[in-house]
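If your schedule permits, I should be very grateful for your opinion on a structural question. What I wish to show you is a protein chain and, alongside it, a tokenised description of its three-dimensional fold. Would you kindly read the sequence against the tokens and tell me how you understand this chain to fold? Here, with my thanks, is the record as I have it:

===
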Amino acid sequence: MALGALAALGVAYWAQDVRGLAPCPLCLIERWPYRVVIALGVLAALVPARLGRLLLALAALVLLAGAAVAFTHVGVEHGWWSSPLPECNGVLTPGASLPAVPAIACDKPVYLFPTLPLSMALLDLLYAAAFAFALLFYAVRQPRQVR
């Protein structure tokens, strides 16, 4: 579980640091569920199996929340709705300082591979959802009996 989440973060940092793809504010939020899942995975390895299964289910819920954030980001990219983050929209709040201008707008898709028409947000949505369902399947399945 922790390694799967670490792999997702590794790809995000590789895209950022090696490929030079700047993350938007929504992209940065999408990374947090993976950090939580890493911690839950390490903890699950240290506790009894029954509690470990509960932590697997909790991690799956965290990943589903991450998939929801990724879905929101995909919707922003496709123009279905505006970003819930003011720093993505340049919204001014009366009496507040000007919002920081993001390195990249949240509504501009970033593609990991230019020939593959799947944005980083959509790839995250697919990965988080598949990862969550795999963890849920593993958490609820009956353990094999040792003979």
